[in-house]
Each structure stands twice: as C-alpha cells, then as structure tokens.
C-alpha cells in the first residue's frame, strides 16, 4: 500500500534554491511486502530531481503541515501459488491541497531479489522507473531524515527501492496508481509467509474510505492453516485446494502490516510451530497453528448433541424474543442428519419441546421450527430449572459425540435458586457428560459474572449482545463455527526428543483445557517455553468413537535475531491478561495475580479499565503505589458490577482477551468500545474513571491521522485514559507499542517500559543527539530492527540488547 507524507516548503537564509512546493511522499514498506511513497521534487525541473524538499529547519522549529492528500480507495489482490505471489495493487489518491503535486512514486522493496518484475501505471499510463539496491535506498531514506529533521522514515531503512519518474496530481483531482509485481515468498518452519505493509497508511490526512485485501491461495496439495496475526480474516474454502482470505475495512487507518501464513498438508490434521525468544536468559514464546481437514459432505462429520436453553421471561418481550426465535430456527435448519437436539424454554416454569432428545431429520427439524414460531415471553427467570432440565436431557444421550448447551438469557435469576455461587455449583454438578457451555448474555441486566462462571466451568465461550445488536447474527456466527466437529477432546503434549528429562518445559499455555476442532477452523495456541531446541507436538483426541493421535515436529528458537515474530509474545500476553482478570473476577482478589497483571499491562501496553493510570503523565511507571491503584480500580469496577452495563462491558473485554487470536482482537476500536461503555456506566452510577491527560506530539508524518486512530486495527497503542479512548478526536498517543516494545510518554520524553532505575544505574546509558552523525552511525551499526524504535519526534530512552540509549532532540 502507498501513502503520502507532506511537509512544508520552507524558506531559510541558508537556502540557495527557491523551494517551489510541498514535499509529498507516499510511503509503503516493510520486510516482506510492498509499500511505496510519492515525492514531489522541490527544485526546478531543469535541475536533477532530489527527494528532499526542505533544508534543515531553522530554530525555533516550524510546525510541519499535515499531509494534503487522501486515499479514497485501495484494493490489494494477491494470488499465492506455492512460493510465488502475483500482486496487483490499485490506489486512488486525491490531492486535497490548492496546488498541483508533482509526484514521484517510490516503492521500497521487501528484500533484495524478492521482486523480479514490476509495472507502475498512473491512470492507465505506464511510467518509467528504476531499481535501487538497499544501500542506495538507505542513502535516500537517510537523506530525507537528515534534511527534514523527521525520523518517521527510519522504519524503512534496510529495504531496496523502486522509483518512478515524475507525474502531476492537479489540485482537487484524483489519480489512480496501479502496481503489478511478482514476489518470491519466504518459508519458515513449514509455513509460507506473505506480508503486505499497510502501517504507513496512518500518514493520510483522512481515513481510507475503502480498503480491501484479497489473497487467493492455490495449491496442488490440501491447504490447511490460513492465519493472520494482525487482522481478522474472512476465510472462504472452495474445496481443499483453493482458499480466499480477505479483509474489508471502511473509513479506517490501518496501522498494522497485513501478515498471512499458510501451509499445505495432505494429512487429516496439520500443526505448525513458530517461536520468539528476545532474551535467551528468559522464557521464550510459541505460537501453535492447527487446522483439521475440510469436510465437504456433512455426513462425514461427527454427530453432535445440541440443547438450546432459551429465556422466555417477561423481560425478553418484543424484539428480543423475535430475534431469539429466529436464532433458534437458524440453528435447527443447520443441524445435520443424525445430530440430536432438544429445546428448553424457561421463565417461571420449565418447558421442554420433547421429553426426549430428537434425532435430526428433515421432518423433526421442520416440526421444531414450527414449535419455535409459537414461543412467547412472560413470567420470571428460573435459571436453576433451566440448567437441571437441560443437563438431564443430555445425560440420557449415550453417544460419544460432542455435546453442547447453548444458553441464552437477558437477566439474573429471579425465582428458584438465585445465589450466583449456588447456580454455578449446580451447573458443574449436573454437567456429567463434559458438555461444552456456550452463553449469550442479552442486554445490560444479565448477570455477566454468572454467565462467565458457566463458560469457564463448561469449557465453552461467552458472548454479550448489546441492546442495539442483532441476536440472530451473533448466534449464527457461533453455530457456524461449531457446526461440524472433526477432532474432539483434543489436548497437546510437548516432547523434546533430544532431552528426555525435559517434561515441564512449556507453561501457561492457552487455551489450557481440552478443545474441539471443527471443519475449516483455525486453532491458535500460545504458550511459553523454558528450554529451546527440537520439539515434537502430540495431538491426542477422538475422531468419532475412535481414539486418535497425531505427531508433528517443530523447533523452539534459542534466541530471536530480530523482532519479526514479536507479535507472538504480545498475543500470549493478551491471553494471559484475560486469564488473570477472569481468575480475579471469579475467585476474588489475589496479590500475586494483581502484581502480574500490573507488570504485563506495563510491559506490553495492554490497556484495561483497571490499568489505564499507567499512561498518566503524573504516574511513574514503577511507582510503588501502582499496585494499590490497580487493586482499588478492580474492586470498584469489576467486583461491584456484574448485572449492569459496566459489568457487561468489562466481561466482554475480558472474554475478548481470553480468546484473542490476532492483534486486531485488541484493536483500539474493540477495546475502546468496551471501555467507553464501562466509563459511561460508571459515571451514570456516580463513579469516576480516568480524566483526560495531555498528550505528546507524534511525528509529523503520522500526526494527520491521529483523529482516525480510534478506529485503527492495531494493538492498543493509544491514549490510556478512558475519556481519551472514548473521544474520536483524542489528540495523540501517550503510549505506543512498536515491535515488542512499549513506550510511555513521561516528563516530555518516551520511555521504554523495560527500563527501571536499577537498570539505568547498571547499564550506563549512552547519550545520542537526534540527526547527528553519531545517530546515523548507530542506525548503520544496529540496523533497521533498532531504527524502528527511533520514529519519535520527542526524546526517547531505549533499552536495546543490553544497552540503554538516551536519544535527545538536536540542539
């Protein structure tokens, strides 16, 4: 993807040329993808074209202008066939300024030799271009940074460059730029990797109106794992050998690169391992991807048992009961032949559709749907009776197939047993067939903590449906997921064949319980390991009534050479945070867990309603009072809120972290939405949550996009206060997560969260002046992995490979 960076045409007594217009750049780069930028020459055309527009800015500094272009539409289509990608990119740029932009398109290459051909067209006309190797390109990038005094381009140092000739974009007009290229794909630990950088889209003056990414994967061998750690994919499987993975975004500023991993495997189950270990003295982190075979004939799937327990009390009247009826009808229509089912309706009384489980046939499904149409609401809420009756039906089933209870309610128990702990105990004691419990909490009056207890004990999944959301869509999404079980009661064992004594070298693995795998499902398991080396993964479970196991091989790295796989640690940390919050919520306060939650939140920049104070300028990162702040926040917000909007919002956020599969699941939009709700509910109850705080200035290249970051698909790197997160026009970030590191803005400089007072004393920091010769020599020495941490306008303190660097503003 491309992107424009605009700065001001400046005047200076030292300038020998009249700078005619603004410097406009469209940046597009990273490690294994394609990204570019447009630059407008700042000198008369008779002169040799230079990439740099402004000379060094005078002191005091002049405020840079924000970019004056927008991307109205972007389409990326990639066909991935074995090790080769054919990529076509179309972008429509609009000049939002009042003068013509004379633009040159620059496209940073992923790595030398990765692209063997490239064509660039502007409104259908082909433009000449030349290739620069990474050393020539490095000089171009460094020159821009030196003369603009703007560090944002440092993240692209280390890539080659494709540069076009000049073309105009008149004021107020649009130009469509298309690129076609062939790219060699990389392979790592059995996975093929395709990366298309999108992060520089944050430099546009407006969110991208329409962004569509479509990757068509073709292979002669069955395609199994298809996974993106940065975006939630829509995956369509057209048979075993053709997959379409897509992402559609509207009015957003994507700030993560598009990363896609896939593999080909003819076996019934495929599993692949990736690992990341930034410090060989500490535990490493692993990502396990597993996908079973695709079932195209429903008769080949394992018969399952489903009981649907539906709350029909008076509070469910109106639109809620109508949508619930439609949800139930959807599930019934999608049952496979030979599945078993029943329906339990509960208000003050308990009514079952049939006395016994029904075998699914076209006739029984049609009759059940007619029954559902007659359902009406009224009465109180007897959750005790619903649980006992539902599990009693399942107890009569002697089959060995998977069993599911789908429980939907909009309130708390009002008759029968009403105590939360007693109801949770009933659900555990009466669940004698290892039934998985899936809950849907509708509205804000539901006892969200009770439903979370059902889910944890029942090894299922909890969903919360807000008043303005459609119940049927949420139920349909869940059932589409569990419709065709393939491999059930699965657990993974990790073995080190070269070290038979190593039995407990993995820890804090999530999900930790036995799981079911479904046709076409992408399972994501994360965990930690203490011992590197070759590893065997044994998957044990049932296929129908037969015990089965599969053996896979992988490798736990001893030490990662760069931060390419830092997302693995971030995914693990997100799930661990969700696990800790769940344990605290359901089991009560625990000092060790609170301390761990605080440390994880600080290190990884994981914002929750309870740790938002970390980004407050007035709060030191290592303040001894932070533990007390966290305890008080959790006690006020979570413990005392469970049957209201605040409780629902917090538990929805907790569940999102517990099953986080990609960085998009902790995006600013999803997290801020839940925190907005919690904040509003707290205020309505007379409470108070964090106040707005002053924010630092981000690099001018990205400052234009700050108002749109609220909707960005990125790890939560935004303002930590709930008020700021609720505000679409919040100024800038006060916390940023870059390639495994988290930086906080404290006392007018960015601070690496891993730096402590003790570490400062032990490592003797090195002071470096921004844009000095020493600065660029350091970048040349440590490379692009280090340079990405320098993309701040303000001073920054960095802990990198056992050395602390204080990077200060130029004098």
Describe the fold and architecture.
The chain is of the alpha+beta class and 811 residues long. 25% of the residues lie in helices and 32% in strands. The chain has 17 helices and 40 strands. The strands form eight sheets. It has an eight-stranded mixed beta sheet, with no helix packed on it. Strands 22, 23, 24, 25, 26, 27 and 28 form a seven-stranded mixed beta sheet that branches. A six-stranded mixed beta sheet has the order 35-36-37-39-40-38, covered by helices on one side. 50% of the residues are buried.
H/I helix tally? 17
The percentage of residues in β strands lies in 25-35%
Number of strands: 40
Biggest sheet overview: 8 strands, mixed
Gyration radius (Cα, Å) is 28 Å
Query: For this entry, what is the oligomeric state of its chains?
Result: single chain
Query: Approximately how much helix is present in the residues?
Result: 10-25%
Structural class: alpha+beta
Strand order of the largest sheet: 9-8-12-6-5-15-18-17
Terminal-residue CA separation? 36 Å
Question: Any low-confidence stretches, pLDDT <50, length ≥5?
Answer: 1-36, 40-66, 681-732
Instruction: Note the overall shape.
Output: globular
Average predicted confidence as pLDDT: 80
């Amino acid at each position: 993807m491309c992107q424009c960076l605009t700065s001001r045409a400046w005047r200076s007594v030292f300038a020998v040329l009249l700078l005619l217009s603004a410097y406009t750049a469209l940046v597009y780069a990273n490690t294994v993808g394609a990204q570019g930028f447009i630059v407008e020459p700042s000198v008369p055309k008779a002169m040799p074209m230079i990439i740099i527009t402004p000379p060094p800015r005078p002191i005091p500094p002049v405020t840079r202008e924000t970019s004056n272009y927008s991307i109205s539409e972007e389409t990326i289509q990639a066909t991935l066939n074995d090790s080769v990608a054919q990529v076509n990119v179309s972008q429509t740029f609009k000049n939002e300024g009042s003068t013509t932009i004379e633009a040159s398109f620059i496209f940073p290459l992923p790595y030398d030799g990765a692209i063997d051909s490239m064509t660039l067209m502007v409104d259908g006309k082909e433009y000449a271009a030349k290739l620069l190797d990474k050393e020539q390109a490095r000089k171009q990038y460094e020159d821009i940074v030196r003369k603009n005094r703007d560090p944002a381009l440092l993240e692209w140092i280390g890539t080659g460059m494709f540069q076009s000739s000049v073309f105009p974009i008149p004021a107020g007009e649009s130009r469509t730029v298309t690129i076609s290229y062939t790219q060699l794909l990389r392979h790592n630990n059995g996975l093929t990797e395709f990366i298309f950088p999108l992060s520089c889209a944050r430099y546009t003056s407006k969110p991208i109106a329409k962004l569509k990414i479509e990757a068509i994967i073709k292979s002669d061998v069955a395609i199994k794992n298809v996974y993106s750690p940065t975006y939630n994919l829509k995956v369509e499987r057209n048979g075993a050998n053709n997959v379409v993975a897509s992402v559609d975004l509207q009015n957003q500023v994507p700030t993560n690169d598009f990363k896609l991993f896939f593999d080909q495997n003819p076996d019934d189950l495929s599993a692949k391992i990736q690992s990341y270990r930034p410090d060989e003295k500490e535990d490493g982190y692993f990502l396990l991807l597993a996908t079973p075979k695709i079932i195209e004939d429903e008769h080949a799937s394992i018969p399952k048992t489903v009981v649907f327990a539906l709350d029909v009390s008076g509070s469910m009247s109106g639109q809620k009961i109508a949508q619930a009826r439609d949800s139930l009808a959807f599930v019934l229509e999608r049952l496979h032949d030979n599945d078993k089912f029943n329906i339990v309706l509960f208000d003050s009384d308990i009514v079952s559709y049939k006395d016994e489980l029904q075998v699914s046939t076209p006739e029984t499904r049609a009759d059940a749907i007619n029954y559902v149409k007659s359902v009406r609401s009224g009465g109180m809420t007897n959750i005790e009776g619903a649980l006992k009756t539902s599990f009693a039906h399942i107890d009569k089933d002697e089959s060995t197939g998977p069993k599911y209870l789908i429980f939907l309610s909009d309130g708390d128990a009002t008759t029968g047993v009403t105590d939360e702990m007693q109801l949770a105990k009933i659900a555990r004691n009466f669940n004698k067939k290892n039934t998985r419990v899936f809950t849907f909490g509708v509205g804000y009056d539901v006892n969200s903590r009770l439903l979370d207890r059902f889910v944890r004990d029942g090894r299922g999944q909890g969903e919360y449906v807000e008043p303005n959301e459609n119940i049927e869509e949420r139920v349909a999404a869940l059932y589409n997921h569990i419709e065709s079980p393939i491999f059930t009661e699965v657990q993974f064992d990790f073995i080190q064949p070269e070290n038979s004594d190593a039995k407990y070298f993995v820890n804090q693995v999530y999900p930790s319980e036995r799981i079911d795998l479904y046709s076409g499902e992408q399972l994501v398991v994360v965990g930690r390991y203490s011992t590197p080396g070759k590893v065997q993964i044994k998957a044990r479970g049932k296929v129908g009534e037969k015990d089965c196991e599969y053996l896979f091989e992988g490798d736990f790295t001893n030490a990662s050479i760069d931060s390419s796989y830092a997302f693995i640690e971030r995914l693990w940390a997100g799930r661990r945070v969700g696990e800790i919050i769940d344990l605290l919520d359901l089991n009560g306060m625990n000092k060790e867990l609170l301390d761990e939650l605080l440390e994880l939140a600080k290190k990884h920049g994981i914002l929750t309603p309870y740790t938002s104070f970390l980004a407050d300028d007035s709060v030191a990162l290592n303040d001894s009072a932070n533990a007390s702040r966290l305890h008080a926040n959790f006690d006020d917000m979570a413990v005392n809120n469970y049957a209201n909007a605040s409780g629902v919002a917090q538990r929805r956020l907790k569940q999102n972290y517990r099953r986080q599969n990609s960085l998009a699941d902790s995006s600013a939009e999803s997290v801020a939405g839940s925190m907005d709700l919690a904040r509003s509910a707290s205020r309505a109850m007379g409470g108070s949550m964090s106040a707005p705080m002053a924010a630092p200035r981000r690099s001018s290249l990205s400052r234009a996009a700050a108002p749109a970051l609220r909707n960005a698909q990125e790890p939560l790197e935004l303002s930590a206060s709930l008020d700021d997160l609720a505000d679409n026009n919040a100024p800038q970030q006060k916390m940023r997560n870059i390639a495994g590191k988290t930086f906080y803005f404290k006392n007018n400089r960015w601070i690496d969260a891993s730096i402590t007072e003790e570490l400062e004393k032990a490592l003797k920091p090195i002071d470096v002046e921004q844009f000095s010769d020493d600065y660029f020599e350091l970048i040349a020495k440590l490379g692009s992995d280090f340079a990405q941490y320098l993309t701040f306008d303000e001073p920054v303190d960095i802990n990198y490979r056992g050395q602390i660097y204080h990077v200060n503003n130029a004098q």
